[in-house]
Amino acid sequence: MRFSNILTFSIRTIVLSIITLSSAIALEDASLTSKQILLDKVIAIVDDDIVMKSELEARVRYITNRLRRQGTQIPSQEIMRKRVLEQLIIESIQLQLAGRAGIRIGDAQLNATLQNIAQSNNMNIQQFEQQLVLEGDSFASAREQIRREMILTQVQRSEVDRRVRVTDQEIAHFISSKEGRTQSGTEYNIAHILIAIPETASAVQISVAEQRANEILAELKSGEDFRKTAVAKSDGRQALNGGVIGWRKEAELPSIAADVIPSLAINEPSKLIKTGSGFHIVTVLEKRGGSEKIIEQSNVRHVLISPSEIRTEAEAEEIALKLYERIEGGDDFAQIAKSNSDDPVSAIDGGNLDWVSPGQMVPEFEQVMGQTKVGETSKPFRSQYGWHILQVQDRRQQDMGKLIQKNQAQQIIQRRKFEDELANWLLEIKDEAFIDIKTEKTADDAS
Q1: Which residues contact 337 (CB under 8 A, 6 or more apart)?
Q2: How many domains is the chain partitioned into structurally?
Q3: Of 21, 312, 351, 391, whose CA is between 20 and 30 Å from 96?
Q4: CA distance 189 to 56
């Protein structure tokens, strides 16, 4: 931590004003000379900002109340005040950085966030406000605390994200690791048949059990339903559930079949697996995730007509309807998109959006796209961006599993690196800041 004997002019002015105000009030009412006039106190100076006693006490109360609601044992007030003051100081440094970077959270953005918080707790905004009051918090203070936290998040992302790099080698190593297979690997819905043998089975008993297991395996290979067979003939605990064990990630597969299951096709019975408990047959009923995820993509192009300052909603709709009639009449879709579309990126390429995957477009667009057959043009429809006319040129089944798996691995690694870098960055900015923490005596002098 860097300390300096020189305070900035602005901070000196603030502290001097507080001292002057204190003296003026004391002189104004001589009848109060026997009483101590309590004013807010400067607890810490942090670069061009100050932390006041009232701010510290309010935050201590807020955190104490929250911990009590959680049933957490609360440390002594001395420790609480010290920890909370550290939090306020590091927040002050970040908020000053945010101010210099022009980071702001407007009321519209804050209101949307509050609405999302309420919805995630199955409440409307009025119920959320009432709940805060019941818990001892005011809606106004909670609102400003959330705004503050949103600003802190933005400045952290802005400063720390650029310090984090995830390499292709790190992603490949993670995917191939045991943890990676658990986090983002393939999941298997597996079923199991057991032909049991007694714990002290004789050679004859083992031979009879093996023969029975081979007969069952032959039936399965000839097309007999695995679950039906399990109900009728398995000695396993899941027999009456069709032998179904359920979904397991690759790293969580039963040890006796961990090397067998990944190589099985859907509904393919495994070879006999012998253990001390008997002969086992496993199969894969379904697969999901991992390196295989087949999705349907649509090759789409569109024309967008947006309302604007010089074009009303009704005018935009009318233009879209006329363009649709021209396309239906035989005019070239690409030329119409180039000349009229308000989507500047796709307009250059005749409205082409290339291959579109599920979830990639806004809901209104995706719904119409799914209802439009290959080669057909949709009637004009509205989204948040304006009026669209879309045309589906082709469809295909595409395996996106490896890309999805890679993106998941990258996000996991990114989050971990971000947390490490964030801790380092917070230490750095604290070390570079001017911080002057007042003792109770100096704080009293300043008041």
Answers
A1: 301, 302, 303, 346, 347, 350, 351
A2: 3
A3: 21
A4: 54
CB atoms within 10 A of CB 273: 18
Cα–Cα distance, 114 to 119 (Å, whole number) = 9
Q: Are residues 133 and 220 in the same domain?
A: no
- Alpha-carbon distance of 148 to 332, in angstroms, equals 52
Helices (H), 245-312: none
Beta bridge partners of 190: 246, 284
Rounded-to-integer distance, Cα 268 and Cα 188, Å: 13
pTM: 0.52
Q: Under a CB-based contact definition with an 8 Å cutoff, are residues 243 and 227 in contact? A: yes
Q: Which long-range contacts (CB under 8 A, 24 or more apart) does 112-117 make?
A: 113/146, 113/150, 114/143, 114/146, 117/146
- The stretch 428-433 carries a mean pLDDT of 94
Q: Which helix (H) or strand (E) element contains residue 14?
A: helix 9-28
Q: What does the block give as tokens for 356?
A: 């579109």
122: in domain? yes
Secondary structure (3-state) at 165: coil
> What per-residue confidence (pLDDT) applies to 391?
97
Cβ neighbours around 207 below 10 Å, total: 12
Claim to verify: residue 138 and residue 194 sit in the same structural domain: no
Domain boundary among 289, 324, 347: 289
Residues 6 or more apart whose CB falls under 8 angstroms from that of 384 comprise 362, 364
Residue 373 shares a structural domain with residue 255? no
Instruction: Give the strand order in the sheet containing 244-249.
Output: 244-249, 186-196, 278-289, 273-275
Domain boundaries, position 364 = 294-399
Cα–Cα distance measured from residue 303 to residue 339, given in angstroms and rounded to the nearest whole number: 10
Sheet arrangement for strand 386-399: 352-356, 294-305, 386-399, 381-383
- Is residue 61 assigned to a domain? yes
* pLDDT tens figures, 18-35: 333 333 333 344 444 434
| pLDDT tens column, 325-381 | 999 999 999 999 999 999 999 999 999 999 998 888 988 999 999 999 999 999 999
Task: Answer yes or no: is 406 within a domain.
Answer: no
| pLDDT surpassing 90 at residue 278 | yes
Is the domain of 245 the same as that of 367? no
Phi, psi for residue 380 in degrees, rounded to 5: -60, 140
Whether 113 and 86 map to the same domain: the answer is yes
Domain boundary among 264, 289, 314: 289
Strand partners, 187: 249, 288
Pairing label, strands 352-356, 273-275:
unpaired
